[in-house]
Amino acid sequence: MNITTDPLQEAWHRLDAPGSYEWWYFDAEDEEQGISVVFIWFAGFAFSPYYLSHYEEWKARRRDDPPNPVDYAGFSFQLYRDGREVINFIKEGPRELFASEDGGIGVRFEENRFVYDPQRDEYRLGIDFTFPARDRSVHASFSFRPLHRFDYRLDTAVHDGVDFRHQWVLSVPKAEVLGVLDIKMLASGKRKVLQFRGRGYHDHNLGIVPMYESIDRWYWGRAFSARYDLIYYVVFLRGRSSSPQALMLVRDHESGNPSAFDAVSVSESGFSRGLFAPVHGQTLRLEAAGVSVDIRHRKALDAGPFYLRYASRFSMTIGDERLEEVSGISEFLNPGPLNSKLMQFFTASRVWREGKRSAMYFLYNFFKHQFDFRRF
């Protein structure tokens, strides 16, 4: 696994090997209003049951046509209020729906796009989609302006016996985020317009084989405090009994100094699972020279057969200073179920595939809409 903060690596890599994937991730939180949002663009939707089914059939020689990642492009948008899901929209489709910024950084899926302006050092996001299955449309514009960046590179290609399968590009560890959300109920015409002001994060991931072929499990998270910002990244590689690749990035606001810790000891405890949630450690402990962090996964914001997103609490000891109960966001990914036909069947209930009729998708969203008594 490679890790880099090189902004040039944010451009679309045009991967075309079967099973390849690439995504651009943005999230932000307005703590005062209790609102958080997540935006993700995909070129080769790594979690698509349709893409992975095509890949497995081609690999088993039941199909002659190899899957091209760009024929499984996509976009997802999640909105949470007070820790509860309001909108969870995921759509994918063929290459005609996807485009990249010519000569720059930015991509588009249908009318949802982001672009990076190097002169202003700003990411501008424009969102425009309808969600008929949940009787909503969403129009939004957001600005992500980096407050600081890190300078770090780990190239596993220089290490003997290590095969590069995945790359993490840490683009913006912390950003000032401004935005406007316009949400409309399709049937009634009722609208809600919100002004958003908060802090956010942006990264970019890509790989050349399906994730379940290279990654066993993956923890990621971030926390912003008055004194420190923390990003952590822990990946257990499939088929390796050695310690995981782990990295902690810490920025001290008083000194302005960034620190990178890549000799990190990782401990998982309090293992848990749900009916459709993967086995995962409810608590993580990360230790490096002069730094220790305890992460407790508290409230699940989103859950699925292979993925969990948490509102978490962080206790950090940095040097002689101990910070108690800092809030943050954590994620866990176990790619193994992505290769399960049963789990692909259930995952299809949450993915709108352009031109594909899915009874599971219709039923899931019908019941979610019927029992959604929260009116945002």
Tell me the number of strands: 23
What structural class should be given to the helix and strand makeup? mainly beta
The low-confidence runs, each spanning 5 or more residues with pLDDT under 50, are 158-162
* Element-level helix/strand string: EEEHEEEEEEEEEEEEEEEEEEEHEH
Number of domains: 2
What is the percentage of strand-forming residues? over 45%
Q: What integer value in Å does the Rg equal?
A: 20 Å
For this structure, what is the CATH class of the largest domain? Mainly Beta
Q: Give the count of helical stretches.
A: 3
**Based on CA inertia axes, which overall geometry fits?**
globular
The CATH homologous superfamily of the largest domain is called AttH-like domain
> According to CATH, what is the topology of the largest domain?
AttH-like fold
Helix content: under 10%
What are the defining features of this structure?
376 residues, mainly beta, AttH-like fold, 14-stranded mixed beta sheet, 9-stranded antiparallel beta sheet, 3 helices, 23 strands, 8% helix, 55% strand, globular, Carotenoid 1,2-hydratase
